[in-house]
Amino acid sequence: MINIQIVTGDSRPIFKQIVDGLRMEIAQGNLPTGTKLPSVRGLAMQLTINANTVAKAYAELTSQGLLEARQGLGLFVSEPRQLLSEEEQEKRLTGAVDAFANEIAYLEFSDQEILERVEAALTKLGKGAPENGTKRG
Amino acid sequence: MINIQIVTGDSRPIFKQIVDGLRMEIAQGNLPTGTKLPSVRGLAMQLTINANTVAKAYAELTSQGLLEARQGLGLFVSEPRQLLSEEEQEKRLTGAVDAFANEIAYLEFSDQEILERVEAALTKLGKGAPENGTKRG
Amino acid sequence: MINIQIVTGDSRPIFKQIVDGLRMEIAQGNLPTGTKLPSVRGLAMQLTINANTVAKAYAELTSQGLLEARQGLGLFVSEPRQLLSEEEQEKRLTGAVDAFANEIAYLEFSDQEILERVEAALTKLGKGAPENGTKRG
Amino acid sequence: MINIQIVTGDSRPIFKQIVDGLRMEIAQGNLPTGTKLPSVRGLAMQLTINANTVAKAYAELTSQGLLEARQGLGLFVSEPRQLLSEEEQEKRLTGAVDAFANEIAYLEFSDQEILERVEAALTKLGKGAPENGTKRG
DNA sequence: GTGGTCTAGACCACT
DNA sequence: GTGGTCTAGACCACA
To answer: Is B54 exposed, middle or buried (0-12, 13-18, 19+ CB in 10 A)?
Structure first.
């Protein structure tokens, strides 16, 4: 059973919430390579949303290389691989950092406080563990 | 003369870039309390964008209390005051950190690399001065 | 006016025909960087198909980095850039070559004939011109 | 024993992989005219796939004239004969070349690199023997 | 007017 | 039953 929460008050569209939620689950190792995902219609029923919305989220993750479809069988978590060129990764990191900085610029938190929060969030993703050097679980 | 950069490649809509840009200018003291802002049409011409877009940004900032209208005279930078409760600020920081972490979870950067980038971005914003504005420690 | 033909007898889905058609037009330099594309609804009317189908094709090209949306203004041909890692490019080339070879394996053409056809098709795309080294027009 | 590889990561559906694989084996002479094919269930077990999928592949090849059923005895490789007109072959080659060129147009490989890959793939298929089967010079 | 999102419902190919 | 495609029609944010 996939554990995803759809929040109607969220600024993100529904399909994005699913994409983010599943990406997080995969990053944290809760959905290891080869795991079968719930069917489009099944997850749609579970979340009480339209099947097309789930299909859109799955399609997004498939194009990102995190999932792969086996015809008539369903969708599965695929072998992790890096789709993006270094240049593109650099660009996305810079964009994300800038957006984040802008988002919190007007809040009254110290740099140290913010950095600690970010570090905690990154650690939760299981990234950067020096003892094995892998990015996922 | 207001110094704001509009970037078409940015993921933020233009009005949001103006809001963020002006908020930054005010936070950094480049636009002290009482400064008159350029007219909607004037700023629109300067940035070569639609006047409605500037108006929307001004409306947003006014409703947030950073600007105030003086009938027939234009918009002015208002007296600084804290509009967001601690609870609200906490919520926004948590949301921003989570969104940021998710955004970069799949990129091949180490925690250290990411933290350095974030720190650099925060420093660039002129935040973190220990003499004021911190909520903890 | 974009010149795309939708063939109902084609094995490719409609949105894929649009993606391929536009990618070809861009690759051949008929749609230089910065060109505004016809609106989703406009192209849908022109091709007498559903607007969602056009939107899906545009979304695909946007995620591939060939187009970029400017909110409220429309879609534009973006600066060419390489989104994919070398590893991923290698994988896709190998896949395409294998699929192509399988597709024509049972036809009675000589290797030389086939290679000439492929070379002609590549030349038509304006690739590999040694005098400037760029991939696009 | 039929020697076919089913690749789950392949873009082609499984039944197509079987069709292509068997056509290849027949073209290369590994399955001469009159050879009895394994039963639907036997091949399905060997490849660990659904029997319906094998049946569909066999039906496809039978309708194409490469296999023929002998009542109660099973399926056999049939007498080779040319089923496709020159016009049809020409059409398929052109289609395949166009699709291939489009597929790789956006990758950063030189024409020469691509042609070498194609040539290698064709050579591997054992095609291009000059003593027969060429349509032109 | 522009693209983006979502719903509802249908049909198809594949297993 | 599975995902993929397409249609029709609605609503929203942005310029």
So the answer is: buried
